[in-house]
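Exam revision sheet. Question 4 asks you to relate a sequence to its structure. Input first:
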Amino acid sequence: MRIYNIKHLFIGITAMLALTNCNDQNMIQNTPPPSNNQENLSKAKGAQQKLIPGEYIVLLQNQFDNRISESVAQQTNVLINQVRESYDIRNDSITQRYQYALKGFSAKLSQNQVETLKKDPRILKVKPNKLYSLGIVNKEKLDDYTPKNVSIMSQTTPWGITRVGGAQNGVGKKAWILDTGIDLDHPDLNVDIANSASFIATESADDGNGHGTHVAGTIAALNNSRDVVGLAAGATVVAVRVCFDEAPGPGQDQCPESSLLNGIDYVANNAQSEDIVNISIWVQ
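Answer key, structure tokens:
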């Protein structure tokens, strides 16, 4: 699990926490340390990234000195459109536009468009879009999940929280969770629904997988009388959905790199300097 402070999001990692492994879709729960076999399986899973056929990420050469502002975003959008028109890239072929944390776009491109874009002096890089993994995740769906069939257990402190000095009072702090979303009405979480967003087409920020909710609980589960307590108990969490509920095909991973970059771009434009960002995705 990687936790980034907004101030240092793009220049380094400020903290890395080896906390709990997600193995329960229905509720935030205490989880023992992963076995070596689990760790090895997760690493192998993370190394098997799948390319998304015909989709590419295009980064612009002029990154505007990495400045983040609305005026720079407008300039970036103009440049994206100029590049698009130069190579007859249809507007509906562009799947994401990046205008804050990085500058560029993702799009469905022909091989000829890819090769000519690589030679354009305005382009820094053209790379295939990939699917990344969440590691080992219980694939059972949440179709039968309702609050009535979730047992309420007395509050516990997970081993990982104790390991890193938790649980501390996180009230007034905010964490942006780039993952499968968050259960927006989970009784053990304080979710900022207004700022939550999804970058998976046709899917809301409400978690249908469980991984993102588990991560949010590890960070910020309330210090009350139920379930677990988080590292920064009571902090506000924001769902930034960048992963499918399930892999889109057999043997595939479930987090498109293009959506992950869009989530980072969204946070860079909307978060405050004292906020943190968590990305619990295998990116190798």
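Marking note for examiners. The radius of gyration is 20 Å.
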